[in-house]
Amino acid sequence: MTPNEQQIIEWITQDEARMQALRAVKTLGLEDECLAAGFVRNLVWDRVHGYEQTTPLNDIDVVYFNPHDLNPLTDLDYEQRLNAIVALPWSVKNQARMHLKYGRAPYRSTRDAISYWVETETAIGVRLDEHDALELVAPLGVDSLFDFTISANPQHGQPEVLLARAEQKGWITRWPKLRIEI
What number is the average pLDDT over the span 10-29? Predict the structure, then answer.
């Protein structure tokens, strides 16, 4: 494990809200699941900016991979079940069907699916393994999270989407040391 990966694991372990969310998701027994995107990214950006308070968990992306049940209503059921455990802004998505949204070949796993996400820094997730240890899912690595960048993922192939997302989400306002790399 790299020093940056170890640092992320340590920060998540110290964040009770994130640990509570991870424990809640584990109770569902999803296949190849992780809490991803801003769940990890925002925490790292908060820490490298030296913020004492972390950005609120305003959208918790739970991704998993089940090619045997592609019904979007299943995701809604999981969201309701999670809300019964802890009321948070859950967004559950089966990555086995998300390739359809982008006209791509079917993904092979959650790791494969998130390797196509818009920004390199967003393509990261974390889960509790069978021993309740944190495991990162980072097909594009984690180092750019520490470099104050928002970089276009070449596998996504639409850098204009990154620009729109950065503007809409107010990333540069929230984390002013960040710079966009297309």
Answer: 98
